[in-house]
Every structure is written in structure tokens, then in C-alpha cells.
Amino acid sequence: QVQLVESGGGLAQAGGSLRLFCAVSGRTFSSYAMGWFRQAPGKEREFVAAVNWSGHSTSYADSVKGRFTISRDNAKNTVYLQMNSLKPEDTAVYYCAADQSNVVPTPRYWGQGTQVTVSS
Q1: Per-residue pLDDT tens digits for 32-49
Q2: Distances 66 to 6, 59, 89 between C-alpha atoms, Å
């Protein structure tokens, strides 16, 4: 069983930065692909970013490419999402996700989410 706990969300101004953390329980963390998704009010959940088991391969949604960076530390069982140049449209609940194969399109494990609010 894998449990994911997000933290680091909060309020930021447009143009600012936030860093999200996802702590993962389980001895096999380093074998899982990890990702971040988000869901804005009234919208469907959407993919944000993903990283493979080693951290050497990443992918991003076009809307965040060049502004967000996903990374992982397998020694600390933690995944990060560095968010720079934030925009009001980045406001959403952000979810950490894990899967033994690929987090896209639907990962097996989800965190509970952390709120990110960007003011203009």
C-alpha cells in the first residue's frame, strides 16, 4: 500500500512562487512513477507534471511548461513541484499521484490534495 501526503500549498501573488511537497510511504517508492495533477473549481482534474522512477525523465502540461519543475528524492521518499511565475489560473487543489507504471492517464494512488491560491 502506498500513501501520499501533500504539503506546501497556500496563497501566493501572481508572479510569485510556491513549492509543493509529497511525502510517500512505502519501501518501493523508488520504483514508482510520480506525478502532480490539479483541479480548479468547476473543472475536471488535469495533468500537471510527471517524473519517472529515476527522476531522469519528466513531462509537463503545456500550460505549466517552463514555469513548473517536478523532481524527486528517492532517499527521502519525496516528490517536489516547484512552481514559479504563478498565474491566477494556477489556482486549484493540487494532488500528488503514484503508479507502478505510468501516472498518465490514471494513476493508481492519490494524495488528499493541497490548495494553491494565486491572487492577481
Answers
A1: 999 999 999 999 999 999
A2: 22, 11, 16
